[in-house]
Amino acid sequence: MRGCRPLTEHEIVKVTHAFRGRHAKRDRAFFLLGLKTGLRCRELLGLRLGDVWNGNVLDRIYIRRGITKGKRTGFSIPLHPVAAKTLCCFIESRSWGSALSTPLFPSGKTRAGIVRALDRSSAWRILKLAYRNAGLSGNTGCHSMRKTFCQNVYRALDNDLIATQAAMHHASITSTIRYLTFDGERVDAAILAA
Q: Using an 8 Å Cβ cutoff, are 37 and 77 in contact?
């Protein structure tokens, strides 16, 4: 997380259109689900088809305790319409079985005919390539999705830090504060205006 930066709205649009190749729908769905839910990379990769789908994309998704950080407790979150639409497009186009226990984000590899989930290093490489294709600079990675989510929720909640902590599922408000970056130009303008 340290050093990864959040994405701007303009950058999000560019990255959304930067996914290419045979797994573009999967990769775009991964990106937008991470961006619109704030889930950690490990939580995203641990999702199963049945966590988001029952013939249609669910309105809320449940994150099982076994894939959460610290494995303390599971939780449910509402699914943003943009993420739901992208997920629906991806799921309906997939060719890798329909068992609800299969990984939501499958790897291109199978072992003994079993579909495996993407691993973290593959997810990181996929996102780094999309960021590069979109012309982004600076330190970006998997955690850029979560940082962007935190920034956007913080603004949408009128800078309510405690509510943002709840949305991020942080045990400590200090963790939430570390996710928030501040626009240097805005701070400079405020100093000059004071």
A: yes
Element (H, E) at 77: strand 75-78
Burial class (CB in 10 A: 0-12, 13-18, 19+), 157: middle
Instruction: Give the three-state DSSP class for 107.
Output: strand
Instruction: Decide if 76 contacts 68 (C-beta within 8 A).
Output: no
Give the pLDDT of residue 116. Answer: 85
CB atoms within 10 A of CB 55: 6
* pTM tops 0.85: yes
- Phi-psi group of 136: left, alpha or beta (phi > 0 → left; psi -120 to 50 → alpha; rest → beta): beta
7-22 pLDDT, tens digit each:
999 999 999 999 999 9
* Residue at 69 is within a domain: yes
Instruction: Tell whether 177 is covered by a domain.
Output: no
CATH of the domain at 109: 1.10.443.10
Which residues in the chain land under pLDDT 70? 1-2, 95-98, 110-112, 182-186
